[in-house]
Fold:
Amino acid sequence: MAKTILVADDNPTIRKMLCQMFEAEDDYDLCAEATNGAEAVSLAKQCRPDLIILDLSMPVINGLEAAREIKRIIPDVPIILFTIHADSIKKSLQAMNSPIDLVVTKTDMPNIVDHVRSLIPV
Structure:
């Protein structure tokens, strides 16, 4: 059975590219896509994905706040924080009790499926 992915990014181009990457994979299904952090939390409650990809800088609530809320509801779901600020955010996340399982820079988008496989192998 395919693993389900929720993608949340306020940039429609990036969100569409991520969705297309997972739609092309036999082992992964896209269960939902969100345009902001609050929508990501709501959709996570509804579809209970196997993994969530969150942009850091989103409207309504940012990716880090959304991740905290999602982990309260679904504590075992792996969350990837997808951001252009990966290097600076990794250091600050290490210093706190972070709900993020992996930080991936947006420049590494071609390898996002490999990063997902590292967290939820099929």
Observations:
- Helices lie at 12-23, 37-47, 63-73, 86-94, 112-119.
